[in-house]
Design goal:
By secondary structure, the chain is mostly beta strands. The protein has 2 domains: 30 residues; 140 residues, Lipopolysaccharide (LPS) transport protein A like domain (lipopolysaccharide transport protein A fold, Sandwich). Helices cover 15% and strands 54% of the residues. The protein is built from 2 helices and 9 strands; from the N terminus they run ααβββββββββ. It has a 9-stranded antiparallel β-sheet with strand order 1-2-3-4-5-6-7-8-9, with no helix packed on it. Strand 4 and strand 5 form a beta hairpin.
């Protein structure tokens, strides 16, 4: 049997490259746990300029969530959003649009914790007075049409302004309840 030295050498180089590739690409669990770097669990997804459509039980569009970025973090059981905008389908008859710098959706997916310049704007009929609600953070349960916070909140009714601590709002019923420390001034 005749063995070609160049074939043996070529196979040895390929085998060494495969072993080196495996060694360098494997997750070093000791390094990851000790330094806090590297994946802490299974990877999730990451989206840029995303639009997510949520349907009702009949398959009709209920609302849309738009975000500059969405990142799923399965190990933390949450999804992070930035540049968040929530808009209801006009057929749902919910006269509000919601925006925030950031959002967090826990794994149970029942609400969105919005933070950073949160703003709810009524989309009333043309020529009607617009209501704006501003707060540093708001919990939005979009499928239940509810918004709430225990933080400071400002409500702008046209040229008028109310400040309070705490808010409960039924967005579909167009009902707003301010919890405490309500202060405002209405000019005639």
């Amino acid at each position: 049997m005749h063995v070609n030295l160049s074939n043996v050498l070529g196979l040895a180089v390929l085998a060494a490259a495969a072993i080196a590739s495996w060694y360098w690409s494997r997750e070093d669990a000791t390094f990851s746990r000790a330094s806090g770097l590297g994946p802490s669990g299974p990877p999730g997804y990451y989206l840029r300029d995303a639009n997510i459509s949520i349907m009702d039980e009949n398959g009709s569009l209920l609302y849309e969530i738009s975000a500059d970025a969405i990142e799923e973090r399965p190990a933390e059981n949450r999804t992070m959003l930035s540049g968040v905008y929530v808009r209801y389908n006009p057929a749902a008859e919910v006269p509000w649009e919601v925006s925030a710098d950031n959002g967090e959706i826990p794994s149970d997916d029942q609400y969105i914790e919005l933070s950073g310049d949160v703003e709810l704007v009524s989309t009333s009929e043309p020529g009607g007075e617009i209501t704006i609600i501003q707060a540093p953070r708001i919990r939005l349960a979009p499928e239940d049409f509810l918004a709430s916070t225990d933080s400071a909140v400002s409500v702008l009714l046209g040229e008028q302004r109310l400040d309070a601590v705490g808010l409960r709002a039924d967005l579909k019923g167009d009902y707003l309840q301010l919890e405490s420390s309500v202060h405002g001034q209405f000019n005639p």
